[in-house]
């Protein structure tokens, strides 16, 4: 298995307890650079992989293939962890790597474990309290939306369909007892602890 593990925004004290446990139990740990290496060092030995900061897609693809070749032997027989700054699901190289891994090694399972993302860490570092909706983008036109506290999921999905959204995932009580995930047949009423993801 290949696990994308969130290491938080850069302070070793902001690693989660689960992140520390997984680093210690991994068969091999990989990281994308020196900062991630230093975060991991107290808990596990790690190998630094080259993930170049470039817009040249051919270079990116070639490096991803090279990294996949290095990771695959461990991921086939045990647990390979790739430690990622922030959270592996938000603007992360992990998703790009998974695309290549799926092409080259379709039998290797991959999943993620969350970390404290730059989005949430920013509010604390800046002393900003965010209590209204906001947009997070990487300079491109946003193509997805996340809604919190969705008390009427089916109604929300129908409204978003009229606005051009086509794919939906609802998670209720995530990481709590009674966690539920919906990708269709959305309930009329939802839990207070709910997140709805919509994409165009």
Give the topology:
Blueprint: E1 2-6, H1 17-25, E2 28-31, H2 34-40, E3 46-48, H3 57-77, E4 80-84, H4 93-104, E5 110-113, H5 118-126, E6 144-148, H6 153-162, E7 167-172, E8 180-182, E9 194-199
Parallel strand pairs: 1-4, 1-5, 2-3, 2-4
Antiparallel strand pairs: 6-9, 7-8, 7-9
Write a compact overview of the structure shown:
With 200 residues, the chain is α/β, with parallel strands linked by helices. The protein is built from six helices and nine strands.
Gross geometry: globular
Radius of gyration: 18 Å
Q: What structural class do you assign from the helix and strand content? A: alpha/beta
**Termini separation:** 30 Å
Strand content: 15-25%
Let me know the largest β-sheet. 5 strands, parallel
In the predicted model, the low-confidence regions spanning at least 5 consecutive residues are none
Q: What is the count of β-strands? A: 9
User: Helices and strands, in N-to-C order?
Assistant: EHEHEHEHEHEHEEE
Estimate the mean pLDDT confidence: 95
Number of separate helices: 6
Q: Walk across the major sheet and give the strand order.
A: 3-2-4-1-5
């Amino acid at each position: 298995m290949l696990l994308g593990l969130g290491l938080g925004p850069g302070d070793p004290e902001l690693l989660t307890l689960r992140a520390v446990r997984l680093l210690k139990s991994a068969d091999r740990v990989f990281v994308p650079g020196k900062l991630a290496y230093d975060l991991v060092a107290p808990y596990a030995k790690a190998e630094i992989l080259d993930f170049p900061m470039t817009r040249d897609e051919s270079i990116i693809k070639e490096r991803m293939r090279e990294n996949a070749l290095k990771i695959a032997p461990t991921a086939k027989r045990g647990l390979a962890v790739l430690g990622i700054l922030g959270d592996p699901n938000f603007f992360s190289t992990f998703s790009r790597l998974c695309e290549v891994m799926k092409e080259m090694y379709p039998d290797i399972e991959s999943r993620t474990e969350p970390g404290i993302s730059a989005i949430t860490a920013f509010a604390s570092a800046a002393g900003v309290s965010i209590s209204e909706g906001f947009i997070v983008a990487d300079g491109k036109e946003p193509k997805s939306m996340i809604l919190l506290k969705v008390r009427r999921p089916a109604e929300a999905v129908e409204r978003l369909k009229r606005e051009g959204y086509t794919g939906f995932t609802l998670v209720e009580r995530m990481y709590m007892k009674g966690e539920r995930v919906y990708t269709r047949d959305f309930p009329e009423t939802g839990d207070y602890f709910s997140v709805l993801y919509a994409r165009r």
